[in-house]
Amino acid sequence: MNDDLPALAARIDRTNELLTRMLAEVAKTPSTHAIFVDAGYLYAAAGRLIAGTEDRRAFDLDAEGLIEALIDRARTIFADSRLLRVYWYDGARRRIHTAEQQSIAELPDVKVRLGNLNANNQQKGVDSLIRTDLESLARHRAISDAALLGGDEDLVSAVEAAQGYGARVHLWGIEAPEGRNQAEPLLWEVDSQRTLDLDFFKPYVARRTAPAYEASGATRPTREDVRFVGAQIAAKWLAARGREALAELLPGHPYLPGSVDQDLLVEAEGILQYSLRGQSDLRRALRDGFWEHVQTQY
Q1: Which one of 46, 58, 81, 173 has the lowest number of neighbouring Cβ atoms within 10 Å?
Q2: pLDDT of 166-200, one tens digit each?
């Protein structure tokens, strides 16, 4: 029995040595942070702040530039931490990427996660996606800090889930012209709060200006004229993108992705030299012409 004591002591010493080395390695491992962006909140709050409207079709957002600015801001706040990635949460019909969402997904260090978009253009399932990612990353110790750009009260459960696994959650908000645009229960639960102001967003949000021909007094085109222009633009669109691009459009019929619909409107107004803003019957004729041509190619 006594002969086993030296061997046991040697094994304990080796175990202690291994533990010491492991702790030293852990101490050298940098902290990791991730940025979580609720795009619905971002577009609504930044659009209201800069362009005076929450309608995405009324302004342009330089998502690439804004994401770089968010990464830089996080770098100054989490100085001794490395970025895991930016998570961008948005809605899309049948969860099919729009052209804009696809371009964001192709950016380095960015992961686009899509909830559904219902007939009223309301996001569904985005909050649950944020909770799933926050909880999973915190549970697996993939992040120590999470910067969350959002304002919905439904995000409280996501914050609590991440904090339960030891991650710190930092809420980022967007300056509101008046009042608040973030739920108070969410503000109460997070570890810290920061507000990004007008000057931060100005370089990345710009209101779309009305065409010069809007007040030109041009003769109102007929529905058939507009329908024909829609078909022309569809032919040009397919020639530029190829038949495989139809997969982005057909599942959403009779709706077009927001970016495609806006491009269609702007190009049609240029051809017609007539503003279609507020002309709902002509806008429908334009989309009908576009769809009719697209469907003949399917």
Answers
A1: 58
A2: 999 999 999 998 888 999 999 999 999 999 999 99
